[in-house]
Amino acid sequence: MTISNQPSHADNELPFNLALIGWGVAALVLGIIAVTFNTSAMVLGAGFLAKCLAVIVGTVLGWIGAVVGDAIRKFAHPDAVYTSGGLLSLLWIKIFWRIGPQVIGLVGGVMLGCALVLR
């Protein structure tokens, strides 16, 4: 039996996924932008605390939407892509399958959360 001072491979792994933190930060930024730069009557007529609550709810729902979008991406991601559009079409498809479903869930969740609070 040998004892080593080197950490095992499992000790080097993080207990959380950095992508989850990234999508949470993106949801927060999008929630702040959605409330700050929106000039609709429901946002302009809301008070400061209502806007803060809208950002919080939008951030949570946006993060959940991004996580659900990531699960859908992992399930539906194609193994092979065939295109006749050339290099730009192939790049667009690769970029979409990298972040597309997460961004759709993120935007939908943030907008739904802000709209539910400020209606």
Give a verbal description of the structure:
The chain has one domain (17-118). It is flat and about 55 Å long. It contains five helices and no strands. Helix content is 74%, strand content 0%.
Tell me the layout of helices and strands:
Layout: H1 9-12, H2 18-36, H3 41-44, H4 48-76, H5 87-118
Helix pairs in contact: 2-4, 2-5, 4-5
Number of helical stretches of at least 4 residues:
5
Cα end-to-end separation: 67 Å
Decide which structural class fits the backbone.
mainly alpha
Shape: flat
The string of secondary-structure elements, in order, is HHHHH
Biggest beta sheet attributes: none
Average pLDDT across residues? 88
Write down the domain tally.
Answer: 1
Helix content: over 70%
What fraction of the residues are assigned to beta strands by DSSP? under 5%
Number of strands: 0
- Unreliable stretches (pLDDT < 50, length at least 5) are none
Q: What Rg is obtained from the alpha carbons, in whole angstroms?
A: 20 Å
Task: Summarize the structure in short.
By secondary structure, the protein is an all-alpha fold. The protein has helices at about 10, 20-35, 40-45, 50-75, 85-119. The protein contains five helices and no strands.
Keyword list:
119 residues; mainly alpha
